[in-house]
């Protein structure tokens, strides 16, 4: 066992306990109990981070000095804003699911958790309005007495908006330290994206436009990868497009843009998405020829002169976002040119290049189920990184994307995904923390994608084995919080810290309830 990982006890001495959990999930009442357990775990983390953020806000307002604001990857404020948006999505879905629950005990527990969320979220909006933590009796004002969830969703969105406004104000005051970057998670573009969901903020829209221009010209990016490159800009555009429409339909009063302006902005976003996609494809095709490798990779990208394969800096992350763009705006729109015949040819080329890359990635897979860090592992070194940024956990979401499609090779993709998940199950309990990028919750997402894309597609029986493994990773992460909390540099953040675990728990609760999960934060829209 590598010193990078903790031993998974459920593979050996606690294997019987895992089998009991799997059997337990076979009943609807048990799955409802798990929904509540996972939701409670997420709420507890929101409470922890909220207390930390409140202290930072009050300290800032009582003592002079600048508050350091960071993007979604490292930032406490922006990460919490994003997490409350995720909380709203989760509660919106679960409230509908709980309308059919007959157990009074489960309903009462669900209502209590909703009340807790309203209390936690309300503390932030109260503090930002009054510059103090102590304002009024939270318990008296925040009791949720129904399960329609609308009060909770509204409060979560209000809090997400307030945190985004607070963060954006500091960005504009030039206290932000990463303004030279242009991507969703590693720059202020993520904060700008959160802002434009709720209001027609000209400075935030302008910031996104600057990022798009940089991505298309490719002059400042240095790469096409997800964390720092063009794919990171594309993910921001896809995020705004999806959630802008969702919030408009959910609670129109929270969006200050008119219907006409909203439609115009969506059209503008689609055109920006098309431009960035085409730039990414053009660079990938050109690099594939320049790097003089075999032709099985129709697209190739480089980061620091290395052809990385994984999600954060490599081909898998770029392909995932490209495929999402195809699904969101349509292949025909992305390939649209004046000549219809040329459009058809371009559409076929886009599809063929992406599929060729998927097949090439599968060919790279080790017998262990893991993948190399680089597309062309010249030295033949079997690298053992098992984390979202490098290794099988970041490639599994891409494999699942194609495994659920009706294509002739979906069985091959499913087999590859299952092999990769087996590798994560054995080696995925990381010592680096509980976060997303290189932590336990990021690896745990492997099982959620497999559960939704593979297990739920099986016609013979409902298999909850992947969900059970995700639950084990969540339980393990929570049990190790005292030990692992301070390991990352930013322990409260989304990608390094506990907010990633909260989003993971939200998605566990959604899949356990039979709802569609949201997906890996800032990766899936």
List keywords for this structure.
0% strand; mainly alpha; 2 domains; 525 residues; Glycosyltransferase
Brief digest:
This protein has helices at residues 15-24, 28-62, 76-97, 104-130, 138-141, 150-172, 189-198, 202-217, 230-250, 259-290, 315-329, 331-334, 340-364, 392-403, 410-427, 440-453, 465-479, 481-484, 498-512. It is mostly helical and 525 residues long. One of its GO terms (molecular function) is metal ion binding.
Describe it.
- The protein is globular and about 60 Å long.
- Helices cover 61% and strands 0% of the residues.
- The protein has 525 residues and is mainly α.
- The chain has 2 domains: 1-131 and 145-171 and 457-524, no CATH class; 176-252 and 265-427, Glycosyltransferase.
- The chain has 19 helices and no strands.
Task: Please give the radius of gyration in angstroms.
Answer: 22 Å
What's the level 1 CATH class of the largest domain?
A: Mainly Alpha
Q: What is the second-level CATH architecture of the largest domain?
A: Alpha/alpha barrel
**Sheet with most strands:** none
CATH topology of the largest domain: Glycosyltransferase
List the helices and strands and how they pair.
Blueprint: H1 15-24, H2 28-62, H3 76-97, H4 104-130, H5 138-141, H6 150-172, H7 189-198, H8 202-217, H9 230-250, H10 259-290, H11 315-329, H12 331-334, H13 340-364, H14 392-403, H15 410-427, H16 440-453, H17 465-479, H18 481-484, H19 498-512
GO molecular function, one term: metal ion binding
GO biological process, one term: peptide modification
Keywords: Metal-binding, Zinc
């Amino acid at each position: 066992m590598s010193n990078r990982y903790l031993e998974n006890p459920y593979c050996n001495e606690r294997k019987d306990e895992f089998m009991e959990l799997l059997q337990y999930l076979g009943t609807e009442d048990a799955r409802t109990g798990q929904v509540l357990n996972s939701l409670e775990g997420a709420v507890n983390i929101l409470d922890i981070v909220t207390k930390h953020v409140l202290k930072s806000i009050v300290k800032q307002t009582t003592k002079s000095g600048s508050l350091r604001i960071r993007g979604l990857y490292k930032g406490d404020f922006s990460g919490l804003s994003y997490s409350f948006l995720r909380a709203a999505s989760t509660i919106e879905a679960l409230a509908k699911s709980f309308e059919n629950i007959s157990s009074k005990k489960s309903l009462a527990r669900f209502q209590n958790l909703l009340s807790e969320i309203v209390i936690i979220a309300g503390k932030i909006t109260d503090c930002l309005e009054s510059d103090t933590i102590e304002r009024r009796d939270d318990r008296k004002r925040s009791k949720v007495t129904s399960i329609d969830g609308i009060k909770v969703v509204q409060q979560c969105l209000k809090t997400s908006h307030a945190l985004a406004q607070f963060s954006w104000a500091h960005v504009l005051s030039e206290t932000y330290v990463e303004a030279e970057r242009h991507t969703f998670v590693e720059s202020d573009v993520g904060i700008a994206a959160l802002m434009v969901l709720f209001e027609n903020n000209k400075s935030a829209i302008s910031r996104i436009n600057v990022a798009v221009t940089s991505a298309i010209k490719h002059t400042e990016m240095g790469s096409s990868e997800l964390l720092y490159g063009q794919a990171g800009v594309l993910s921001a555009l896809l995020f705004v497009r999806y959630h802008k429409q969702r919030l408009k339909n959910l609670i129109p009063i929270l969006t200050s843009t008119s219907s006409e302006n909203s439609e115009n902005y969506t059209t503008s976003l689609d055109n920006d998405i098309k431009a960035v996609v085409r730039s990414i494809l053009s660079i990938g095709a050109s690099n594939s020829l320049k790097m003089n490798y075999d032709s099985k990779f129709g697209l190739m990208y480089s980061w620091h002169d290395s052809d990385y394969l994984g999600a954060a800096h490599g081909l898998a992350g770029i392909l995932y976002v490209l495929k999402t763009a195809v699904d969101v705006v349509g292949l025909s729109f992305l390939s649209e040119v004046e000549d219809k015949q040329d459009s058809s040819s371009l559409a076929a080329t886009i599809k063929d290049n992406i599929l060729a890359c998927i097949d090439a990635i599968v060919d790279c897979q080790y017998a262990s189920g893991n993948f190399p860090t680089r597309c062309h592992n010249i030295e033949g070194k079997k690298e053992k990184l098992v984390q979202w940024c490098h290794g099988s956990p970041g490639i599994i979401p891409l494999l699942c994307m194609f495994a659920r499609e009706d294509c002739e090779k979906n069985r091959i993709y499913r087999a590859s995904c299952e092999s990769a998940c087996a590798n994560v199950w054995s080696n995925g309990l990381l010592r680096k923390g509980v976060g997303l990028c290189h932590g336990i919750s990021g690896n745990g997402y492997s099982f959620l994608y497999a559960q939704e894309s593979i297990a739920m597609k099986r016609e013979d029986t409902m298999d909850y084995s992947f969900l059970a493994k995700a639950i084990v990773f969540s339980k393990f992460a929570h049990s190790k919080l005292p030990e692992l909390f301070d390991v990352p540099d930013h322990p409260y953040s989304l990608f390094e810290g506990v907010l990633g675990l909260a989003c993971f728990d939200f998605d566990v609760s959604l899949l356990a309830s039979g709802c569609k999960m949201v997906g890996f934060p800032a990766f899936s829209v």
